[in-house]
Amino acid sequence: MSPLSKTNLEVMKMSFVLGITGGIASGKSTVVNVFKEKGFPVVDGDVVARKIVAPGQPALAEIAATFGLEMIQADGKLNRKKLGALIFQDDKKRQQLDKLMNPYLRQQIKAEIAAGKKTSPLVVADIPLMYEGHYDHYMDEVAVVYVDFLEQKKRLMARDLIDEKTAEVKIKSQMPLIEKKKLADTVFDNTGSKAKTVQQVLNWLAVHFKNES
């Protein structure tokens, strides 16, 4: 492999890593899409989680060894529905899966952040379990996309066509947004309109990367 050019080395040293997190139906994708549209690389934790369990990957083999071959479909892909049903009913199995996946997920996320830093002054890491997984330690700053509980519940019910009780169970299975807000370096308040949220992101970029955005 040829050595990095001086330019790439300088970019990597100067690169700023912004972690973005939120909660279910908080509107995190609205914020992340602004950075994508501006051309900044985004490391998507959900996409990474799918990559590491693709056919042939060691994480998938470990899932089969731990939870049974029935977790693998005939085409060699992970049976997400079956695995999801298993861990949803059993907290111990969910914790076991999280522990199994953690090193693969962490390694891939760190690798993709490092790759982004070689080409861009800003890398965005979109990680739902930012604080729960202690990924904030790898960030220069963490931004939380916030909505209040009632608005979050209302949006989730409308998005997933579920009742109030089901929505509350889903929301309460996550770290409360109000707690994430307290830990955040930056808060993008998405309680209002999409346009207002987008403007907050543009304002952040204008302050931090006025020559890049």
UniProtKB/TrEMBL annotation:
Binding-site residues, ATP: A25, S26, G27, K28, S29, T30
What is one Pfam family matched by this protein? CoaE
Please give the superkingdom of this protein's source.
Bacteria
Q: Which UniProt keywords apply?
A: ATP-binding, Coenzyme A biosynthesis, Cytoplasm, Kinase, Nucleotide-binding, Transferase
Record-linked InterPro entries: Depp_CoAkinase (IPR001977), P-loop_NTPase (IPR027417)
Specify whether Cell inner membrane is a keyword of the entry. no
Catalytic activity as recorded in UniProt: 3'-dephospho-CoA + ATP = ADP + CoA + H(+)
Q: What is its EC number?
A: 2.7.1.24
The subcellular location is:
Cytoplasm
Any single GO molecular-function term of the entry would be: dephospho-CoA kinase activity
- Chief site of localization: cytoplasm
Family annotation (HAMAP family): Dephospho_CoA_kinase
The function of this protein is: Catalyzes the phosphorylation of the 3'-hydroxyl group of dephosphocoenzyme A to form coenzyme A.
List, alphabetically, the PANTHER family matched: BIFUNCTIONAL COENZYME A SYNTHASE-RELATED, DEPHOSPHO-COA KINASE-RELATED
Protein name as catalogued? Dephospho-CoA kinase
Q: Name the encoding gene, please.
A: coaE
